[in-house]
Specification:
With 124 residues, this protein is mainly beta. Helix content is 0%, strand content 48%. The protein contains no helices and 11 strands. Strands 2, 4, 5, 6, 9, 10 and 11 form a 7-stranded mixed beta sheet that branches. Strands 1-3-8-7 form a 4-stranded antiparallel beta sheet, with no helix packed on it. The protein is globular, with a radius of gyration of 13 Å.
């Protein structure tokens, strides 16, 4: 069993930055691919970014490419999402998830473990 806990969300003005963290515990997180999703009110959960277990490959949704960076520190059992140049459309609850096969990164239902989310609000 893996427990994931997100942190780092908050209120930021457009153009600002936030760094989200995803702390994992319970089993070997270092062998799991992981991803970040977000869900805005009234919308479906959408893929944001993913990273392989080694950190060697990363994947991004077109809407965040060039602004967001996913990374991980397996020694700390923690994943990160650095978000720069934030816009109001980035407002959502952000979730980290883990244990997914390569090729299924954008499919939320393919992930084995989820955190409870952290709210990100971007004001205009």
């Amino acid at each position: 069993q893996v427990q994931l806990v997100e942190s780092g969300g908050g209120l930021v003005q457009a153009g600002g930055s936030l760094r989200l963290s995803c702390a994992a515990s319970g089993r070997a997180f270092s062998t799991d691919n992981m991803g970040w999703f977000r869900q805005a009110p009234g919308k479906e959960r959408e893929f944001v970014a993913a990273i392989t277990w080694s950190g060697g490959s990363t994947y991004y949704a077109d809407s965040v490419k060039g602004r967001f960076t996913i990374s991980r520190d397996n020694a700390k059992n923690t994943g990160y999402l650095q978000m720069n140049s934030l816009i109001p459309d980035d407002t959502a609850v952000y979730y980290c998830a883990a244990r997914v096969a390569v090729g299924n990164f954008v499919r939320a239902h393919e992930y084995g473990y989820w955190g409870r989310g952290t709210q990100v609000t971007v004001s205009s």
